[in-house]
């Protein structure tokens, strides 16, 4: 973030409400534009706050980013602005990619995106002539059925311009939650263990089975009743929910998520959660999802914890317990480890049933003994041993004030602020030919408008935490739906009246905010309030690779209440 803020000559922000949703980084970008004269191109259907200081704001139709990007790259190639030496030395598959881009002349792109041709030329010139340009994006790019393709096309753009692997350039996804990067790094994904080590690799399986007191498939033949570490790729969150109805999922252990508020198509989610055999929820508040839980376990908040968060730039940061924990609440890691111990105990020792109680107490070689962590520093030791990219990131170094970004394999390694400086992970960067695909839901006569969803500055997702903060509720106490003034006139909306928004799945009522932040034909709603959550309306059309839902585009009908 430092190098982007200090050294980018231009920013291309596409699909990120940077000042409202990433306020700290947003402020550094605002400063770079105001005081250092960095150029800023924003591509966003909405007139978000940061467009006030933008050199140029492109207002593409939602879901047309690939066409837009291909159009910009067409112009870059037409003008000869591409970085030829970077393309030759660092990339492959350029010709195939170029053939696809040549299908996107400006006039055609303008028709698909609704962005005027002269703005396409202006944007391409700003992005190509300021070297380096940093590309920044967030959910406006990823929450689409083409989320992965959108991201690949942004990588195409930055390779075309030679903006990869240098200070002030790069592809910069702004990660949302404080520790979503850390959760992924630690294997909170269905196909990998920590540090993205594949669950399908026998060597990797053996390493983790040993460390966690489990068995591999081969050992299983000798000890048929033992617990084996599976080498099967699991399900994503968005596959688990429908998986309940398909009988694939019998029980769920949810920690720190509130799917009744945050998953698409709430009615369907409620039905799934009603159908599950057993739901264990670990929370700090009785959330909307708590109503469906068989057991609710009290975790503790960030302020009561010591450990690390890994932020959007792969920097591992120490957090320290600031207040004592309340009541029976316990550290989340402690609860998880206690459950793991009991599960292991149950599963791995049928053969010695009678000795069970005894072993539980005394035998340190028992599998569950591996789960007896003293504190989070002991967990970090295990991470150092099993997670190569975190090998040198210790609590001691962080406490001594070191600023460490992974990969940091050893304790004398300084960390890696910028990736891909000499080569990409796979060697050469591969240009991908990417074609425009229209969104899953198209407006029709019954549902003629498009609803986009996201957040507001004052609230956090399902609002369990922010709706409990009096000060925030005074500023933003109920959901507001952004409606364009032209549409307001058509609807007969006067001042701050209520609208009903209906999709093929459900209906909500909320106060309208008449504003040109949204273009005509589009409304914008949030999912912060249960009584008017946008997710009653959204649908679970998924990106085929990442399995992320298309939260950003729902066909709706808007009426006056
Ligand atoms: N105050 C606050 N801050 C937060 C959060 C919060 O709940 N509250 N949540 C955090 C989390 S987990 C996340 S993931 C981030 C999300 O951060 P962002 O992704 O920056 O926020 P969103 O509100 O999802 O909006 C993304 C932007 O995409 C635009 N958009 C919509 N459709 C399209 C499209 O088709 N193409 C393009 N290019 N843009 C489109 C929207 O107009 C919006 O400006 O925010 C984080 N920060
Ligand atoms: N329509 C629409 N839906 C969306 C999105 C969108 O843009 N549009 N964005 C999506 C995105 S990017 C995200 S990240 C998700 C977020 O979806 P969720 O993660 O489900 O939303 P949160 O409200 O952040 O839920 C976190 C829960 O964890 C609890 N919690 C907080 N701290 C702790 C803790 O330390 N321990 C435990 N055990 N619990 C804790 C809180 O009380 C809260 O209920 O929403 C997604 N849903
Ligand atoms: Mo997120």
Features:
about 550 residues, 6-stranded mixed barrel, Dimethylsulfoxide Reductase, domain 2, Barwin-like endoglucanases, binds molybdenum atom, about 35% helix, 5-stranded parallel beta sheet, alpha/beta, 22 helices, about 15% strand, binds ligand MGD, Rossmann fold, globular
Fold and architecture overview:
The protein is of the alpha/beta class and 561 residues long. It has three domains: 2-174, Dimethylsulfoxide Reductase, domain 2; 180-343 and 373-405, 3-Layer(aba) Sandwich (Rossmann fold); 449-560, Barwin-like endoglucanases (Beta Barrel). Helix content is 34%, strand content 16%. It contains 22 helices and 21 strands. The strands form six sheets. Strands 16-20-17-19-18-21 form a six-stranded mixed beta barrel. Strands 3-2-1-5-6 form a five-stranded parallel sheet. A hairpin with a 4-residue loop joins strand 12 (307-310) and strand 13. Helix 14 packs across helix 16 (266-275). The longest helix has 17 residues, at 332-348. Bound molecules: ligand MGD (2 copies) and molybdenum atom.
